[in-house]
Amino acid sequence: MEKGNKIYEGKAKKVYETDNPDLLIQEFKDDATAFDATKRGTIKGKGSINNYISKILFELLESKGVETHFVKQIDERNMLIKKVEIIPLEVTIRNIVAGGMSKLLGIDEGMVLNEPVLEYHYKNDALHDPLINEYHARALGLIKDEELNIIEKKSFEVNNILKSFFDHKNLYLVDFKLEFGRHKGKVLLADEISPDTCRLWDKDTRKKLDKDRFRRDLGDVEDAYEEVLRRIKG
Ligand code: UDP
Question: Would you say residue 180 has pLDDT above 90?
Fold first, then answer.
């Protein structure tokens, strides 16, 4: 599959057209940004690791009946995906308090939640992806009620599948972000699932094995991404 015109370049990925109007190529970059791109850097090898990790997780989810935009891995950095219309919502699921929730509510990181928390953030860089609820999402016309119900159900399903998968790899799935897109009347899971978009802690040591190592200058960033790939491959 040949790359055509580049139609999008974001912080961590580029997207290209292909000769099939229904398919795109998603290329994973080594670039990393945090705090609304005020912190920038590169994580050597991240692009190929995240491509591989996303492939494994999308295949796992597909095997459990969760439809995604993933078609196949093309090579180290490139993945063939279905062209979707991205819904401008970031869905966050949290199992353990960390990051934004710890700040928002003044709770120490690490508190295990009684039940998973689902949050919606409006995808808008200029507004710093503000936290909104389902009433905002519907009232602003970002999404239809039926789609919202599908997204909610799918997100919890994804959480159950991934939580148990990572648990077997001796990792806590602390929280993660999902994006969905519209495709031929269906809602598909889109974007990527990787240590850029999930918080993963080693169950024994609670060592962070995700993008927080970059955000917080904790060191061993590449090693952490490699470690996640090593565990989920095995
Ligand atoms: N996240 C993401 N993209 C974003 C914001 C958050 O992938 O633009 C992920 C993040 O890696 C974490 C989860 O979503 O796994 C929850 O992030 P949080 O809301 O705590 O925000 P952060 O602390 O990253 O600012």
Answer: yes
Would the pLDDT of 234 be above 80?
Answer: no
pLDDT at residue 106, rounded to an integer: 98
Whether 127 and 214 map to the same domain: the answer is yes
Is pLDDT above 90 for 219?
yes
Nearest atom in ligand 1 to the alpha carbon of residue 174 is 15
Question: Does 211 contact ligand 1 (Cβ within 6 A)?
Answer: yes
pTM of the predicted model over 0.90: yes
Residue in 43, 172, 197, 201 to alter for ligand 1 test, most ligand atoms within 8 A of Cβ: 197
The answer to whether residues 35 and 140 belong to one domain is: no
Check which CATH number belongs to the domain holding 195 and give it: 3.30.470.20
Ligand 1 centroid to Cα of residue 21, in Å, is 31
Measured from the CB, is residue 33 less than 6 Å from ligand 1?
no
In a shared domain, residues 126 and 52: no
Report the 10 Å Cβ neighbour count for 86: 14
In a domain, 1, yes or no: no
Long-range contacts of 133-137 (CB under 8 A, 24+ apart): 137/89
What would the two tokens of residue 24 be? 């795109």
